[in-house]
Amino acid sequence: MSPRPLIIDCDPGVDDAVALLLAFASPDVFDIVGVTTVAGNVSSTLTARNACIIRDIAERADVPVFAGAAGPLMAETVEAGHFHGESGLGDLAIAEPSCDVSAAHAVHFLAETLVAAAPNSISLAVTGPLTNLALALRLAPEVGRALREVVIMGGARTEGGNITASAEFNIYADPHAARIVFASGLPIVAIGLDATHQVRTTDARMRELGALSSARARAAHQLLRFGEHVERTLAGREGAPLHDPCPIAYLMRPDLFTTVPACIAVETESTLTRGHTAVEFRLQAPTNTRWAAQVDADGVFDELIARLA
C-alpha cells in the first residue's frame, strides 16, 4: 500500500518532537506533505525552529516546514515553557537548523494544499493548539473536503485537565479555535488526556529505547527523560505521558486505540473553565467525531521503538 499523505500541525514541544521523530521514521506509512507549526508550548518562532531541528535529526530535509499563527484567535496567550524548557526541547542540545522554514504561511499552505487535493485524500494530525486549522477553515471552508481524517491531541474528560482542573493545554491555549474545529463537521478523532495518560514511560520501556543507537532514538530518549523529570517534579507522577506521539501512533495502528462516537463542545466564556471539553456520548444526532477511551500502551511503545531503531 502506498504511503498515506499526511500533514502534521504542531507546537514542538518535547512530546511533539517525539511525535515528529516517529512520523519522520515511517516513510513506508506516511508521505509527509508538510509540517506546520503554531504558537503553543513556546513561541511561534521557537516552535518553527524546533520543527526544523527535529527534521535535521531525522535527516528528512525533503519535508517542508511552515510557520503559522503567533497567538490564539481571541484568548490571552499562554505558553508551557515550564514543562518543555526554555527552548521547548527540554535539555536537548540546540543547533542552528541546516535549512529554514518555507516562505508561505502555514495557514495559506493548509488552505491551498487542501483545496487542491482530491477528496478524502489527506490525513491531518494536530498536536498543538487548533489555531492554524481554524484559520484555514475560515479562509477556505472547502478545505474539509480533502481531509480523510483529523486526529487531534486535545481535551480531557475523566482525567481532568493538565493546565487547569478541567482543561487540557492545547484546547485551553486557543479555546475559540477548538470550538470552531469541533463544530465543523470534520471527521475527527480526539485523543485526549483520558487516553494519553495511559501511555507512559516506564523503566523497562526507557531501557529498551536507551539501548538504541540511532540519532533519532537518542534524541527521543533524552526528550522523554526530560519529560519524566518534569512530570515527577511538577505533577508528582511517575512516567512521562506520550501525549503527542499518540495521534501518529493512531494513524499507524488504529487497532491499538478504542474510540467511541461523541459530541465535543468547548467552553470559551468562563475564566474558571476556559478550554473545558464537554464530551457527550449520549448522542442526539449522528456525529463525525470520535473520542479515544482506551489505548494499548505496550503496542504504542513497540511501534515507537521499532521505528526509532
Q: What can you see in these coordinates?
A:
By secondary structure, this protein is of the alpha/beta class. It has one domain: Inosine-uridine Nucleoside N-ribohydrolase, Chain A, CATH 3.90.245.10. The protein is 37% helix and 17% strand. The protein is built from twelve helices and ten strands. The chain has helices at 14-24, 44-57, 81-84, 106-116, 131-139, 169-173, 175-182, 193-196, 203-210, 215-235, 245-252, 297-308; strands at 4-10, 30-37, 65-67, 122-126, 147-153, 188-191, 257-261, 263-266, 277-280, 289-295. Strands 3-2-1-4-5-6-10-7 form an eight-stranded mixed β-sheet, with helices on both faces. Strands 8-9 form a two-stranded antiparallel ribbon. Helix 1 (14-24) runs parallel beside helix 2, helix 1 packs antiparallel against helix 10 (215-235) and helix 5 packs across helix 7 (175-182). The longest helix is centred in the C-terminal third of the chain and has 21 residues, at 215-235. The protein is globular and about 50 Å long. 54% of the residues are buried. The mean pLDDT is 96.
Structure in a nutshell:
Helices cover 37% and strands 17% of the residues.
How are the elements arranged and paired?
Elements lengths: L3 E7 L3 H11 L5 E8 L6 H14 L7 E3 L13 H4 L21 H11 L5 E5 L4 H9 L7 E7 L15 H5 L1 H8 L5 E4 L1 H4 L6 H8 L4 H21 L9 H8 L4 E5 L1 E4 L10 E4 L8 E7 L1 H12 L1
Parallel strand pairs: 1-2, 1-4, 2-3, 4-5, 5-6, 6-10
Antiparallel strand pairs: 7-10, 8-9
Helix pairs in contact: 1-2, 1-10, 1-11, 4-5, 5-7
